[in-house]
Design brief:
Elements lengths: L2 H4 L9 H10 L1 E4 L5 H17 L10 E3 L10 E5 L1 H4 L1 H7 L2 H11 L3 E9 L9 E4 L13 E6 L10 E4 L30 H4 E4 L6 E5 L4 E3 L10 E8 L18 E3 L26 H5 L9
Antiparallel strand pairs: 1-9, 2-3, 3-4, 4-11, 4-12, 5-10, 6-9, 6-11, 7-8, 7-10
Helix pairs in contact: 3-5
The structure holds 2-oxoglutaric acid.
The site of 2-oxoglutaric acid has 9 residues, from strand 10 and strand 11.
């Protein structure tokens, strides 16, 4: 659904001003909207999954390991598709608490796409280069939104999400380098004018949601604190927004309607999108792609 049509539907959770801020800036923090009951359930599920990673020695379809990972000191970059590995993650991703938030920015009919649980371990973590999300998983419109849940407090030293406000309105950058390698990164030299002034750190207490439009330029720094930064990311779109490449993070829940009705017609935005590599041949997660030419973000 296109933005103008989404505006014709009343907000369910946000204020009109919050929705307008999201449309204008491409990102939004909603503080303290997920209650302690959910946080407790999700943290227990996360603890089970971290425990299960202790015996894993190499990154696989479930876990992306961080350097130094081992049985006594598990260190993860990502639990890929948490909804596929623990029922509590799907219970949350399909719950009215989050579906209504997605509906405020996608319209009343909301479809689930995929999920990931990104960690940043204390005293290290991993940085994420500047990128847009949508070139990794193009859809027929730009309604897809990533809704992140900070499962613990996230302050400025913990590698919060950083977003360049308003960058979702500009043309998309190529996610390939000059040699045609997929990098999922935008070098600083190619960042939009005034990006430093427009960059905002999306810090928030545990239980807060952070919304990212699929075009907005974002990234994050390393976690320099002594506290872990678990960030549960669920991606939704309008029901009539159709993905047209293989889902890099497939799950049995892809395409499930979490609120409203299934679409009987697709919605098309006239702005096309660069195509990613063919993920049906495998997807290794963003870090390997970004590991080409190194340069830190937001120095
Ligand atoms: O986990 C992070 O800090 C960044 C996540 C992100 O940008 C992504 O998964 O696309």
């Amino acid at each position: 659904m296109l933005e103008a049509d989404i505006r014709n539907h009343p907000v369910q959770v946000m204020t009109e001003a919050q929705r307008e801020q999201f449309f204008a800036e491409g990102c939004l923090v909603l503080e303290n909207v997920i209650d302690d009951g959910w946080l407790k359930r999700l943290r227990a599920a996360m603890a089970e999954m971290i425990d299960a990673s202790r015996t894993v020695t190499e990154s696989d379809a479930r876990f992306v390991l961080e350097d130094g990972h081992g049985p006594t000191d598990p260190r993860l970059r990502r639990l890929t598709s948490p909804v596929s590995h623990h029922p509590e993650f799907w219970a949350f991703a399909s719950s009215p608490s989050i579906a209504a938030v997605a509906a405020d920015v996608c319209g009343p009919d909301v479809k689930f796409y995929h999920s990931k649980l990104n960690f940043k371990w204390p005293g290290g973590g991993q940085k994420f280069d500047w990128h847009h999300d949508i070139p990794a998983w193009p859809h027929t419109d730009y309604s897809p939104v990533t809704i992140g849940l900070y499962m613990e407090d996230c302050g400025p030293e913990q590698g919060p999400l950083l977003a360049v406000k308003g960058s979702h309105k500009e043309p998309l950058h190529s996610m390939y380098d000059a040699n045609g390698n997929w990098r999922l990164r935008i070098p600083e030299a190619r960042m939009p004018a005034h990006w430093q002034e427009n960059t905002t750190a999306l810090t928030a207490p545990a239980g807060s949601l952070v919304l990212l439009n699929c075009r907005v330029i974002h990234g994050s720094q390393r976690n320099l604190s002594a506290h872990m930064r678990p960030l549960l990311l669920n991606v939704y779109s309008s029901a009539d927004s159709m993905p047209y490449v293989f889902n890099p993070i497939p799950s049995p829940y892809e395409g499930e309607i979490v609120q409203g009705q299934k679409a009987n017609k697709s919605c098309h935005d006239p702005r096309g999108c660069e195509l990613p590599p063919d993920w049906s041949k495998g997807y290794v997660g963003p870090w390997q792609h970004q590991g080409g030419a190194r340069k830190t973000i937001a120095e």
